[in-house]
Write a structure and sequence with these properties.
single chain; 8 helices
Length: 209
């Protein structure tokens, strides 16, 4: 009996230790922390001048890259078409789509000019996904930005962003679905290469990091 009790206690101790190390901070705190870092960069007086634009973009990208899960974004966007891509094509798609999607988010963020950012509630979407609601409040309106996050390796990562009710993933999924109906993955990759190459200013800021 004593051995059984000791065995149970040992198991509980191991479980508590493992669980404590695996518990992530709440998704709201993850997003709030990263958004606040972004706001600090955007509000930095030393980065206001046009000459500091590249430095500012590099700092913003470092934060965005740390919290976005581009692989998850890519797989969810391509949906059933994801498996039609070879591993090499998937890797290239993740890289190109990350730039394209990030640039869309970057445009909204870089337009920030000391508006107030207010966080709302967190809604659990599934066992390992949640939605964190926020909005940018201006003098004339509020712009809702919702972050959908997934828990991976005890960290919350963004797998979609809804800007004014429009899902970035859903928006591109519709576009890519139409392309992949009649064309192979290579054609979509070619289109993305051309699109990313055309973002001269953006590419300069990202690739030089």
């Amino acid at each position: 009996m004593k051995k059984s009790i000791l065995w149970i206690i040992s198991l509980v101790a191991v479980w508590v230790t493992f669980s404590s190390s695996a518990i992530a901070e709440p998704p709201m705190e993850t997003i709030r922390t990263q958004v606040n870092k972004l706001l600090e960069v955007l509000a930095d007086p030393a980065l206001k001048a046009e000459a500091a634009k590249e430095t500012k973009e590099k700092k913003v990208w470092a934060i965005v890259d740390a919290v976005f899960d581009y692989s998850e974004l890519s797989a969810r966007t391509l949906a059933q078409h994801w498996k039609a891509f070879t591993p090499e094509q998937q890797k290239e798609f993740v890289r190109l789509f990350g730039k394209l999607l990030g640039n869309t988010y970057m445009d909204r963020i870089m337009a920030y000019s000391n508006e107030k950012v207010v966080f709302g509630k967190t809604s659990q979407l599934s066992d390992n996904t949640s939605e964190v609601q926020s909005e940018i409040v201006t003098a004339s309106k509020s712009i809702p930005i919702y972050y959908r996050v997934i828990l991976k390796d005890s960290q919350w990562k963004v797998f979609d962003v809804l800007i004014e009710g429009v899902s970035l993933v859903q928006n591109y999924r519709t576009q890519f679905r139409e392309i992949l109906k009649n064309k192979p993955p290579e054609d979509l990759l070619k289109m993305l290469r051309e699109k990313v190459a055309s973002m001269y200013a953006f590419s300069e800021g990202r690739e030089s990091t």
